[in-house]
Design a protein that fits this description.
Helices cover 39% and strands 34% of the residues. The protein is an alpha+beta fold.
């Protein structure tokens, strides 16, 4: 009986020690950093950037659209080379918007903000209308934009999109 009582006492004393864990030195820093990230505010800011982008598309302002990208940003349209940097991005957008009847809408479906608050992923769908030969054509597809917070502003660093239409024979 005494051995049993001693064993239970020892177990009761050691059990809390088995459950305790030592906190890493940066645990508090990570918690403070995560608490400082305003994901709702950042998502709202990115949605505002998307709305601004669409206004610039309607105005056919390729230079202002290119300014929405980071210096090292890239646009990756389907069936065309990658446009890296502001000059190439401006040229890519100017070329697309020069298509007669060009109109674009974007529908951001998911915006995920990184735990550090400096990167975000914007995934959604688009509708594109063009009329190159006078006949209106509509394309729907999906896109992904990776955003980086630079100096408090969200800038696109990678922008890729592709059509839902079947590949044409060719």
């Amino acid at each position: 009986m005494t051995k049993m009582l001693l064993l239970l006492s020892a177990t009761a004393l050691l059990l809390p020690a088995c459950q305790a864990r030592e906190k890493p030195a940066n645990d508090g820093a990570e918690a403070n950093s995560a608490a400082a990230v305003d994901t709702a505010g950042d998502e709202k800011a990115i949605r505002a950037q998307v709305d601004h982008w669409l206004q610039l598309v309607k105005a056919k302002d390729a230079a202002a659209i290119a300014a929405l990208y980071a210096e090292d940003g890239a646009v990756m349209p389907p069936n065309a080379p990658i446009g890296k940097g502001h000059a190439a991005i401006q040229q890519t957008w100017a070329s697309m918007m020069a298509t007669p009847g060009f109109d674009l809408t974007l529908n951001p479906e998911q915006i995920l903000i990184s735990s550090s608050g400096d990167m975000a992923l914007d995934r959604g769908t688009y509708t594109l209308t063009v009329a190159p030969a006078g006949t209106t054509q509509t394309d729907t597809g999906k896109y992904v934009v990776v955003w980086r917070k630079i100096g408090g502003d969200w800038k696109a660093v990678a922008d890729i999109f592709n059509s839902d239409l079947p590949a044409s024979a060719g």
